Amino acid sequence: MTGLLVFGRTGQVATELARLAPDARFLDRASADLADPETCARAIRDSGCDAVINAAAYTAVDRAESEPDLARAVNGDAPAAMARAAAAAGIPLVHISTDYVFDGSGTAPWRETDATGPLGVYGATKLAGEQGIAAAGGQWAVLRTSWVFSAHGANFVKTMLRLGSEREELRVVADQHGGPTPAAEIAAACLTMARVMRDDRGRGGIYHFSGAPDTSWAGFAGEIMAQAGLSCRVTDIATSQYPTPARRPANSRLDCAALQRDFGLARPDWRAGLAKVLQELKT
Ligand SMILES: NC(=O)C1=CN([C@@H]2O[C@H](COP(=O)(O)OP(=O)(O)OC[C@H]3O[C@@H](n4cnc5c(N)ncnc54)[C@H](OP(=O)(O)O)[C@@H]3O)[C@@H](O)[C@H]2O)C=CC1
Ligand SMILES: Cc1cn([C@H]2C[C@H](O)[C@@H](COP(=O)(O)OP(=O)(O)O[C@H]3O[C@@H](C)C(=O)[C@@H](O)[C@H]3O)O2)c(=O)[nH]c1=O
Ligand SMILES: [Mg+2]
């Protein structure tokens, strides 16, 4: 996609965007530090691009609890500044957000219109980003996704492969439920949305997108061990048995019907995405 500007170059989703849209311009931390929102706005103003995707974020969920100011600048203030600059330039912004904006109550898949209630700093700062974007008033889309994995960068799959080859047993929480999502599918969805929005200025809003079927982290871990041929046993535990600095939602299930209806994008099967990632890690 020519005329596309992407914030982020090294992350999971940015890496997949670079594969799918090699003509786009990618800004790494050295070119646009999200800790400095004005730099991001200027990058958009100076770019002459006709669409923007923000694939950069502060994603260290536990560390965010002790770095709330930095997390807020990167996840909250920078996306808001991007949205104001994009609105002024008359171009669409596609931004990625998270299931962690929800409090995780109940068992029903979350809809876009449901009340948010983040449990930790990461989720709260991502929610601030969503709100800042909506307040900017231009043409924007926020794609909320969950449990992202790929062959690149740090993610649950790579952690499980490493620990699973070192240990006979792993204890993994079985009472947090959601949809693992391949980064490649998120990149493809963002590109589709950016194209559609560029051609139809009436489109945008908040949308949910996650892999299917819903599972638990323990279920995800079990499938990783099985597909990778690792004999490591996965034992179900409760969240209370795995203390972490940040609280995480028990129910991260996302209702993805609106994205299917408005953009024709269906939930991808994460098990097929996992097979591709394992193949890629082998080569
Ligand atoms: N990972 C997940 O499980 C989920 C992610 N998301 C959202 O999806 C989006 C993409 O996430 P993902 O690809 O996994 O992210 P990664 O954690 O893989 O990568 C984060 C990216 O953001 C960049 N970045 C971080 N801080 C700054 C900064 N101050 N200035 C410039 N760049 C910065 C990193 O650059 P550098 O290499 O220099 O650090 C890196 O390129 C994010 O909005 C995230 O919130 C949503 C749900 C789940
Ligand atoms: C390593 C490990 C983790 N866990 C638990 C902790 C946690 O509840 C769950 C997943 O661990 P992670 O550290 O990958 O989780 P986390 O970093 O919170 O993953 C989140 O990242 C952010 C960026 C998002 O937006 C979310 O959608 C989600 O993907 O598994 C175990 O139970 N056993 C283990 O051995
Ligand atoms: Mg993590």
UniProtKB/TrEMBL annotation:
Keywords attached to this entry: NADP, Oxidoreductase
Residue ranges of domain RmlD-like substrate binding in the record: 4-282
Superkingdom of this protein's organism: Bacteria
Cofactor: Mg(2+)
Record-listed E.C. numbers: 1.1.1.133
Recorded catalytic activity of this chain's protein: dTDP-beta-L-rhamnose + NADP(+) = dTDP-4-dehydro-beta-L-rhamnose + NADPH + H(+)
Entry-linked SUPFAM superfamilies: NAD(P)-binding Rossmann-fold domains
NAD listed as a keyword: no
Pathway connected to this protein: Carbohydrate biosynthesis; dTDP-L-rhamnose biosynthesis
GO molecular function: dTDP-4-dehydrorhamnose reductase activity
Cofactor binding, per record: Binds 1 Mg(2+) ion per monomer.
Top EC class of this enzyme: oxidoreductase
GO biological processes: dTDP-rhamnose biosynthetic process
Cited function: Catalyzes the reduction of dTDP-6-deoxy-L-lyxo-4-hexulose to yield dTDP-L-rhamnose.
Family: Belongs to the dTDP-4-dehydrorhamnose reductase family.
Protein name per its UniProtKB record: dTDP-4-dehydrorhamnose reductase
Protein species of origin: Paracoccus halophilus
